[in-house]
Design goal:
The chain is of the alpha/beta class and 268 residues long. The chain has one domain: Alpha-Beta Barrel (TIM Barrel). It is 43% helix and 15% strand. The chain has an 8-stranded parallel β-barrel with strand order 1-2-3-4-5-6-7-8, surrounded by 7 helices. It is globular and about 75 Å long.
Length: 268
């Protein structure tokens, strides 16, 4: 068996817009439901969702049967956790809160084997090499791993061009909520100032020759960011969609059928 190419990494360079969704339910069965919906990629969130190494592994296994690419957002820049997630078989990682090109270079080293990096060599025990069945894994791993870094503060946005220019960084994703908060606009991710900074950062990333991405649940605004140059877009999260859809369902039923909320004859 040979190590497969990273289709998502290749698509960032040559394909059209890659559309994705956040997986926040921390459940492999729920992830499988979403896997057949037609998204190009799904983000297994290890930062804000209650995912650990075990749930990340089970979700990766669940998604493997579907033509969708799993991306794992690790909780922070810890190289030990990054190593463990790579051994689970994740080939694309998103690291939050990257502030500088120096920080980005440290992350590149964390996902690469020596001498280019510091990743420990233990894939023969792990799902990453299919337990040693990928005969060329050690030779190809550095080239097939896709590293995405997340810009989430005004200071990081000012460094966007330098961060994107780091060799080994494949893409930059903008986080609207934290970016808005860093600008004193907590809870206002679509504020005009945030949008303007998004556009500026997307253009800076593209000018550096890297793929720019956004998380944006507003479909109209997401299309606008694509027109500016974004190549991958997260359109929302499974947990948010479930919450909104179930609330809308019961609200529609009650509004259309007042009797549905009435007490039955003879009831207490």
């Amino acid at each position: 068996m040979q190590t497969p190419d990273n289709a998502f990494k290749l698509a960032l360079k040559t394909g059209g817009t890659q559309v994705g969704l956040w997986l926040g339910l921390a459940d492999a069965y729920a992830a499988e439901v979403v896997a057949g919906s037609g998204f190009d990629w799904l983000m297994i969130d290890g930062e804000h969702a209650p995912n650990d190494l075990t749930t990340i592994r089970t979700i990766l296994q669940s998604l493997a049967a579907y033509p969708v690419h799993p991306v794992v957002r690790v909780p922070d820049s810890d190289p030990t956790f990054i190593k463990q997630v790579l051994e689970l078989g994740a080939t694309t990682l998103l690291v939050p809160m990257v502030e500088s090109p120096e920080h980005a270079r440290e992350l590149v080293r964390a996902v690469r084997y020596p001498p280019a990096g510091i990743r420990g060599v233990g894939s023969g025990l792990a799902r990453s090499s299919r337990f040693g069945r990928y005969s060329d894994y050690l030779e190809r791993a550095n080239d097939t791993i896709c590293l995405l870094v997340q810009i989430e503060t005004g200071a990081a946005a000012a460094n966007a061009a330098a961060i994107a220019s780091v060799e080994g960084v494949d893409g930059v994703l903008l986080g609207p909520s934290d970016l808005a908060a860093s600008l004193g606009l907590l809870g206002q991710p679509t504020h005009a100032e945030v949008r303007a900074l998004f556009e500026q950062t997307i253009r800076a990333t593209v000018a550096a020759g890297k793929a720019a991405g956004v998380f944006c649940a507003d479909e109209v605004l997401a299309r606008h960011y694509v027109s500016v140059g974004a190549r991958f877009v997260g359109l929302g999260a499974d947990s948010s969609i479930l919450a909104a859809a179930t609330a809308a369902l019961v609200q529609r039923f009650r509004q259309a059928s007042p009797a549905a909320t009435a007490k039955p004859p003879g009831g207490d």
